[in-house]
Amino acid sequence: MAIVLGPNQYGKAEVRVVAVDRSTPQHSLVDLNVSSALRGDFSAAHLTGDNAHVLTTDAQKNTVFAFARDGISSPEAFGLRLATHFAGSYDWISGARVELESYGWDRIAVGGAPHDHAFRRAGGEVRTAVVTADGDDLHVVAGLTDLVVLKSTGSEFWGFPRDAYTTLAETRERILATAVTARWRYVGSDLDWHATYDTVRTTMLEAFASTHSLALQQTLFAMGTAVLETVPEVAEVRLSMPNKHHFLQDLTAFGLDNPDVVYHADDRPYGLIEGTVLRDDVAPAEVAWQGTPGFV
Ligand SMILES: O=c1[nH]c(=O)c2[nH]c(=O)[nH]c2[nH]1
């Protein structure tokens, strides 16, 4: 029996970088959380503490700030620049994974006009990107987290089996609410990242709204399908959608009826519906997802 080093990667996690564009009186800013991880032959550092192959995590952090000096056009483009730089920097580095979160800032309206240099953090939703350089291959997975949506009708749930522990009543009318976490993998690494992101996000929202839902699972598949039908550059969509239950509150103790008016928004437990929707003619690329924890 021998004990050997298995797969490994290392880098700097959660570099918080804010880049301000002051080139016109109307400033704009990009606010990112960037994590880099290098892959390659780092066995000596692990086995003997020989750091000759270790491009320091401190240098990786510095690279993020230095590259930001040139401006950040999009999380995807910035991630591609970093990943190709790291993967090409030494011959023992075979690849790099760069994960980015992008926090939105909206202009504060003053007297109804958008202010030039005062901003309000946009809602809880976060745009994400994961760029992986694997040898000469580049993979871009874009995404979002915490896109919270609700439908006040157009959702039913019935027809499920009733075992000894099933107490849930069938319903033809319920609130459907979820916080979408989605990641989608692009084929190609030279897209209009902002426009494509906006199209995917809008398509998911429209599919959520317009699908008459018989299950959150059906809504998930409809959302993924709509994205693949609308954006040919997307190869697969992975979705994680908690079922944010809204239970009709019993008001009979107060002599009141409740004809689908008053609900208890329960925060936990929640159903967790997760799935992948993909084209069957596109080659899988598991390396694009390596290091991304959880279902998506
Ligand atoms: O859309 C739903 N899917 C389920 O799998 C499920 N299970 C449950 O209790 N309620 C729901 N709703």
TrEMBL record:
Record flagged with keyword Zinc: no
Alphabetical UniProt keywords: Oxidoreductase, Purine metabolism
Pathway: Purine metabolism; urate degradation; (S)-allantoin from urate: step 1/3
Domain of life: Bacteria
GO biological-process terms attached to the record: purine nucleobase metabolic process; urate catabolic process
EC number in record: 1.7.3.3
Reactions catalysed: urate + O2 + H2O = 5-hydroxyisourate + H2O2
UniProt-annotated binding residues for urate: 57-58, 157, 174, 217, 243
InterPro entries in UniProt: Uricase, Uricase_CS
Residues noted as binding 5-hydroxyisourate in the record, renumbered to the chain: 57, 157, 174, 217, 243
GO molecular function: urate oxidase activity
Binding site for O2: 57, 243
EC primary class: oxidoreductase
Active site, UniProt feature: 12, 57, 245
Cross-referenced PROSITE patterns: URICASE (PS00366)
Stated role: Catalyzes the oxidation of uric acid to 5-hydroxyisourate, which is further processed to form (S)-allantoin.
Family from the record: Belongs to the uricase family.
Record's protein name: Uricase
Organism in which the protein naturally occurs: Klenkia soli
